[in-house]
């Protein structure tokens, strides 16, 4: 009886009643889950020289991460996960503009924290694979674990077009899946449908730039690599670097 009473008091004390705070925490956790699995798949591929993972396994990790992330916070924050999606629903007047910068900040923070968690998880592997040097190019680069980089042949203009088309396809697909006036996805299977959409885009449009399609997914981990020791080179367009894993 005493234990049950203590638990009820603890739950009442920890319960967050402010709706915006609840949404921000849900979005933060959703993005963290998304990026932890997504970047983990890339880290496993890179640090094992593709012996325990390849681009397909990395893409699968990213797509399945979407499914888990939507289930994690979809009922509270809507699990936007992506500033591009938040921007789109603001344009469609389905989301208030005043929340947009808050969601973007939370999404970026969630990505940054997830990158830090993956770095800690794969710390030994990263340093072993890189021979003790954190580089952004060359045969032992590890920056592509955390952020996507264009293939050698991709120009800035082509890279920009690549992201416009792939991100546009993502937003169009998600809006179609979530539109109840359209041919509906069976209730509860929306996260699976979005995950399959992401996988389809990744395996059809991933070779140019690695399919980031998400400003928070790219900027948060890229900022982490900057402060963690990879340096300002992570923000430069440099030839000779591979693509990291997946969207998202």
From TrEMBL:
- Cellular component GO terms held in the UniProt record: basolateral plasma membrane
> What are the entry keywords?
Cell membrane, Glycoprotein, Membrane, Repeat, Transmembrane, Transmembrane helix, Transport
**Where exactly are the transmembrane stretches of this chain?**
20-39, 59-81, 102-122, 160-178
Q: Does the keyword Zinc apply?
A: no
Membrane topology is:
Multi-pass membrane protein
**Keyword Ligase found:** no
Pfam families assigned to the protein according to its UniProt record, in alphabetical order: MIP (PF00230)
Give the InterPro entries listed for this entry.
Aquaporin-like, Aquaporin_3, MIP, MIP/Aquaporin
Q: Spell out the molecular function terms from Gene Ontology.
A: glycerol channel activity; urea transmembrane transporter activity; water channel activity
> In terms of domain of life, where is this protein from?
Eukaryota
- Catalytic activity from the UniProt record: H2O(in) = H2O(out); glycerol(in) = glycerol(out)
Q: Where in the cell is it found?
A: Cell membrane
Family of this protein: Belongs to the MIP/aquaporin (TC 1.A.8) family.
Q: What name appears for this protein in its UniProt entry? A: AQP10 protein
Q: Which organism is it from?
A: Uria aalge (Common mure)
| Name of the gene | Aqp10
């Amino acid at each position: 009886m005493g234990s049950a009473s203590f638990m009820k008091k603890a739950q009442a004390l920890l319960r967050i009643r402010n709706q915006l705070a609840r949404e921000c925490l849900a979005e933060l956790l959703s993005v963290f889950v998304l990026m932890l699995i997504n970047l983990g798949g890339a880290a496993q591929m890179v640090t094992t020289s593709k012996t325990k993972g390849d681009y397909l396994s990395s893409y699968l990790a990213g797509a399945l991460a979407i499914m888990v992330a939507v289930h994690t916070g979809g009922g509270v924050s809507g699990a936007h996960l992506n500033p591009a999606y938040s921007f789109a629903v603001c344009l469609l007047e389905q989301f208030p503009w005043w929340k947009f910068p808050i969601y973007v900040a939370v999404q970026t923070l969630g990505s940054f924290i997830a990158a830090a968690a993956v770095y800690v998880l794969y710390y030994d592997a990263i340093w072993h694979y890189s021979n003790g040097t954190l580089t952004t190019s060359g045969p032992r680069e590890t920056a592509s674990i955390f952020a996507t980089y264009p293939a050698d042949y991709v120009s800035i203009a082509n890279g920009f077009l690549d992201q416009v088309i792939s991100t546009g396809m993502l937003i169009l697909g998600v809006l179609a899946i979530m539109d109840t006036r359209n041919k509906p996805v069976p209730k509860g299977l929306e996260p699976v449908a979005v995950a399959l959409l992401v996988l389809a885009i990744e395996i059809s449009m991933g070779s140019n730039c690695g399919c980031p399609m998400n400003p928070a997914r790219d900027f948060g981990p890229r900022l982490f690599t900057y402060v963690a020791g990879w340096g300002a080179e992570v923000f430069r367009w440099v030839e000779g670097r591979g693509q990291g894993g997946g969207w998202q």
